[in-house]
Amino acid sequence: MSCSPRHRTGASEASAKPSGRRKARCDSIAAPTRELEKLIVSRKLAHGGYPVTRWMAGNVAVAQDPAGNLKPAKDKSTERIDGIVAIIMAIGSAMVAQEEPQPLYQVVFF
Q1: Which distant-in-sequence residues (6+ apart) come within 8 Å of 84 by Cβ?
Q2: What confidence tens digit (pLDDT) does each residue in 41-99 have?
Q3: Residue 17's pLDDT band (cuts 50, 70, 90)
Q4: Is 107 within the bounds of a domain?
Q5: SS3 content of the chain, % helix, strand, coil (to 5)
Q6: Quick one: residue 12, left, alpha or beta (phi over 0 = left, psi -120 to 50 = alpha)?
Q7: How far apart are CA 94 and CA 48, in angstroms?
Q8: 54 found inside a domain
């Protein structure tokens, strides 16, 4: 997992367009990674004993940058960790949704 500023699909840098997929970046994945760690340590993360999730969690290696930010490191992990990365990205999306201000009013048309 690289810390690139945007997801590239192999096109030249000048013609690259965002694909709509979230690419994990150091600045966007550090907070949700820490939040996942808190959930795991506090035993508040329930995965229902799902064996694939347990297997992927056992494969995860974490990298730390000089600023102390954590992120899952695919290149250092023993096997697949995609499900754990998906959990981290979902936590990140939930964190962003909580930060967005709620409208003072809502217009509903019938």
Answers
A1: 36, 53, 56, 57, 59, 60, 72
A2: 998 888 788 899 999 999 999 999 888 898 899 899 999 999 999 999 999 988 887 76
A3: very low
A4: no
A5: 40, 5, 55
A6: beta
A7: 21
A8: yes
Residue 23 has pLDDT above 50, yes or no: no
How many domains are contained in the chain?
1
Is residue 36, in this structure, part of any structural domain at all? yes
Burial class (CB within 10 angstroms; exposed 0-12, middle 13-18, buried 19+) of 87: buried
Residue 85: what residue type?
V
Residue 30 sits in which domain range? Answer: 26-95
Closest residue by Cα to residue 21 from 4, 38, 44: 4
Name residues whose C-beta falls within 8 Å of residue 76's C-beta, 6 or more positions apart in sequence. Answer: 61, 63
Neighbours of 94 (CB within 10 A): 12
Q: What is the rounded CA–CA span in Å between residue 35 and residue 88?
A: 8
Q: Is residue 14 part of a domain?
A: no
∠ CA 50-55-56 to the nearest 5 degrees? 100
